[in-house]
Amino acid sequence: MTITKPNRRDMLFMAAAAPALGLPARQAQAEISAPDAAQPAYHRFRVGEARITIVSDGYLGVPASGLGVNADPREVAAFLKAHYLSQTQSYAHTNHAVIDLNDARILVDVGAGNRFLPTEGRLMDNLASAGIDPSSITHVVITHAHPDHIWGIRDDFDEPILPDAEYIIGAAEYDWWMAPGRVLQLPERLQQFGAGAVNSLKTEGLEWTMARDGHEVAPGVRLMATFGHTPGHMSVMVESNDNRLLVLGDSMTHAYISIERPEWVAGFDMEPELTVKTRKRLLEMAASERIAVVGYHFPFPGVGHVMPVDGGYRFIPALWRWEA
Ligand SMILES: [Zn+2]
User: Fold this and answer.
1) Structural domains in the chain?
2) What does the alpha-carbon distance between residue 258 and residue 275 come to, in Å, rounded to a whole number?
3) Quick check: 315 and 322 in contact, CB under 8 A?
4) Which runs of consecutive H residues, i.e. helices, occur in the chain?
5) Strand ranges (DSSP E) for the chain?
6) Distance, CA 144 to ligand 1 centroid (Å)?
């Protein structure tokens, strides 16, 4: 197979064909409906001196059969039902963090653009709603090279959407996807993911900064190696005035399953054992050190805390306020 440029039509076909990823369900499964008017687009708060804006790229609908793939399906179904979630279709938000601290303005991940699912690709519009001029973004951190996180890196003319920013990715992540012959080594259903990762990483006009564990993006913002979901996945730690926020990326993909059942992995957790090990380490750290977290696929805006409970953990959404 030659490395092609996947287009949206290919991806929709692939998505419909792949057992682990499908088209979003048309009907809402929950007992409460979608908001009547405009969807929430951004949410802004502070962590110490850092100003954080969570900006949505839209959502993904994925079959619930891709959740807890190493668990008894009846247990997974019971868990979802108990959490008032659909047992057939999982609705995953896509929450990007924009971190303003000192002179840096850091965007975490670039979303799917118009190359993946039609329910995504709203990042640039929502940045505009949030009053964030794309040219003011100084750094782009890519947590990992899955389609919903990186395919939006270039526009319809294959130009980088943010040409002037510094682009940073884990060295291990870059090397893994770019290894010669990688795409062909992937299971067939993931080969388009591989081709899309390679094409995104090869975007003309971009130079990559290769990061290792502890890489300082800017003062107060460091990367943490959180391998497992992908072989070189990175999370982002923001620290200011003793306050900390951990931008999880996909080290935890589900606000309830990843936290209450960290040993259950999803179909897209590429290294299952390492995923679980990393997740447990992060949960222990977030709970014992009272670090706020934001999950890319958690319910918007995806910000909260990890509460220890009965030998395990629970996600507590942050109580946000109209005034500081
Ligand atoms: Zn993702």
Assistant:
1) 8-22+40-317 (3.60.15.10)
2) 10
3) no
4) 8-17, 73-82, 123-129, 147-150, 171-178, 182-185, 191-201, 257-260, 272-288
5) 42-47, 50-63, 89-101, 104-108, 139-142, 166-170, 208-211, 216-218, 221-225, 234-240, 243-249, 292-295, 303-309, 312-317
6) 8
Q: How far is the CA of 149 from the centre of ligand 1 (A)?
A: 6
**Ligand 1 midpoint to CA 297 (Å):** 7
23 CB-near residues (< 8 Å, 6+ apart): 12, 15, 16, 61, 117
Tokens 């690709």 correspond to: 121
Cα of 296 vs centre of ligand 1, distance in Å, is: 7
User: For residue range 255-266, what is the model confidence (pLDDT) as tens digits?
Assistant: 999 999 999 999
Residues in the chain: 324
Residues 6+ positions from 132 with CB-CB distance below 8 Å? 53, 55, 98, 105
Q: With beta carbons less than 8 A apart as the criterion, state whether 82 and 57 touch.
A: no
Structure tokens at 270: 């590429």
pLDDT digits (tens, 9 = 90+) for 126-181: 999 999 999 999 999 999 999 999 999 999 899 999 999 999 999 999 999 999 99
The answer to whether the beta carbons of residues 192 and 11 sit under 8 Å apart is: yes
User: Separation of 190 CA from ligand 1 center, angstroms?
Assistant: 14
- Indicate whether 4 pLDDT > 50: no
Going from the Cα of 133 to the center of ligand 1, the distance in angstroms, rounded, reads 24
- Dist. CA 100–CA 44, nearest whole Å: 11
State the virtual CA torsion across 95, 249, 23, 189 in degrees, nearest 10: 160
DSSP state of 88: S
